[in-house]
Design goal:
Elements: H1 3-24, E1 34-41, H2 48-68, E2 71-72, E3 75-76, E4 78-85, H3 90-103, E5 107-109, H4 114-126, E6 130-133, H5 139-142, E7 148-150, H6 155-169, E8 174-179, H7 183-198, E9 202-208, H8 217-225, E10 230-233, H9 237-249, E11 257-260, E12 278-283, H10 294-305, H11 313-330, H12 335-342, E13 347-349, E14 353-355, E15 368-374, E16 377-384
Parallel strand pairs: 1-4, 1-5, 5-6, 6-7, 8-9, 8-10, 10-11, 11-12
Antiparallel strand pairs: 2-3, 12-15, 13-14, 15-16
């Protein structure tokens, strides 16, 4: 299917989805000439590649919508992205949230890090601005705010996936559980440890770093001394690569399998695939290629940005189309009406197929996949919404 045909089908689907609701809301506010969508992601630092990928997904969708002529109540409205760098830092994330609110955004796609999404959420909620986040810590939706919407499954499911896969598929009895000290990392690691212990597996090393450390000689020594067979880690890819180097120094890398969270299922992580016994990742971020329209998306992405996607840009691409559909259904670009519509909206997501939220903003159809590196690529092993 051609790119033009795909866009026409996407816009046609949006039109069909909103027709019934639009007629009932014909008396709503008049749309402005331009609307602003906030993007709050880490655009610098160690997670910049992931944050830029999430920004790229929004940009692709906005460029398509603007090119086709996005309309509210029959008026063509230009969508403008206001992108800001949250630096993976909670304080910066709150400052960015305040700046985006002051800039007049009607919705925000952000943040990557749970430790940033959670403190930023009340800032958006105060102004009824929907926050569509790919961060996975359950506390994000447990805040009780009607503006929080998660794009993927949360870490309760991912922790069960780690525990189940590690206990039943990796033929090991001694584990190390390592986290990066962030809200995301500590929460997921605690859940994974609990699952392993329920399966009567030994966690012989528990270790917490910060999210910037790359010196792991001490940890490598503990892993070797404990006879660890599998390292379960919620650190980022650059940290796991550094840990592998530390294990190589003491000739213990080939004895180890590593099972990580979604922050290691990256192209950079593939550099370490031949230096350990096995490399696995659990992720609620399913690869674009796993969806029917994924191949077309990937081709357009590569043509536009001259690179492979690094993480989950197809989810933020879909999130932008969901927001567009919600605005059409509400016949409004007022933040409170967008948020209200999203709460009951079964929107059309061009790549992943559907995004629909429950009463607290969790995905109704979230799943977690387990991937292994095979022949230099991440290869899906299994996935489920019931681990």
């Amino acid at each position: 299917m051609t790119h033009t045909a795909t866009r026409r089908l996407t816009l046609a689907a949006l039109t069909v989805a909103v027709t019934a609701g639009s007629a009932m809301l014909s008396g709503c506010d008049n749309p402005p000439d331009t609307i602003k969508i906030g993007v709050a992601q880490p655009l610098s630092g160690n997670l910049a590649a992931l944050g830029q990928d999430l920004h790229n997904g929004v940009k692709m969708a906005v460029d398509e919508l603007n090119k086709e002529g996005f309309q509210i109540k029959g008026k063509t409205v230009k969508i403008e992205i206001i992108a800001m760098d949250d630096r993976s830092d909670p304080k910066a994330g709150v400052d960015v949230a305040k700046q985006l609110v002051d800039a007049g955004v009607v919705a925000v796609i952000g943040n990557l890090n749970s430790g940033v999404s959670i403190p930023a959420a009340p800032v958006y909620a105060e102004k009824h601005i929907a926050q569509l986040a790919i961060s996975t810590n359950p506390k994000f939706t447990e805040l009780g705010l009607d503006t929080t919407f998660r794009l993927v499954a949360n870490d309760n499911l991912q922790a069960r996936a780690i525990g189940s896969f590690a206990a039943n598929q990796l033929n090991a009895s001694k584990f190390a559980v390592v986290d990066d000290g962030t809200t995301y990392g500590k929460g997921l690691a605690a859940g994974a440890s609990a699952e392993l212990k329920k399966a009567s597996k030994q966690v012989v090393v528990s270790y917490s770093s910060d999210d910037k450390t790359t010196k792991f000689d001490e940890l490598a020594g503990k892993i070797k001394d404990g006879g660890v067979e599998v390292v379960v880690s919620t650190q980022g890819d650059f940290q796991i690569l550094a840990l592998i180097e530390a294990l190589k120094k003491i000739d213990y890398n080939q004895q180890i399998s590593i099972l990580g969270g979604d922050t290691i299922k990256t192209t950079d992580m593939l550099k370490g695939s031949d230096t350990v016994k096995g490399l696995y990742a659990t992720s609620p971020i399913l690869d674009a290629k796993e969806f029917v329209n994924g191949k077309s998306f990937l081709a357009r992405y590569q043509e536009t940005f001259k690179r492979e996607p690094a993480y989950g840009g197809h989810y933020t691409y879909d999130a932008m189309y969901i927001l567009a559909g919600a605005m059409k259904r509400a016949n409004s670009v007022k933040p409170e009406k967008i948020t209200e519509t999203l709460r009951t909206f079964d929107g059309y997501a061009p790549i992943t197929g559907s995004m629909k939220w429950d009463a607290v903003g969790e995905q109704r159809y979230g799943v977690v996949g387990v991937y292994a590196v095979r022949k230099g690529v991440w290869d899906l092993q299994l996935r489920s919404d019931r681990w």
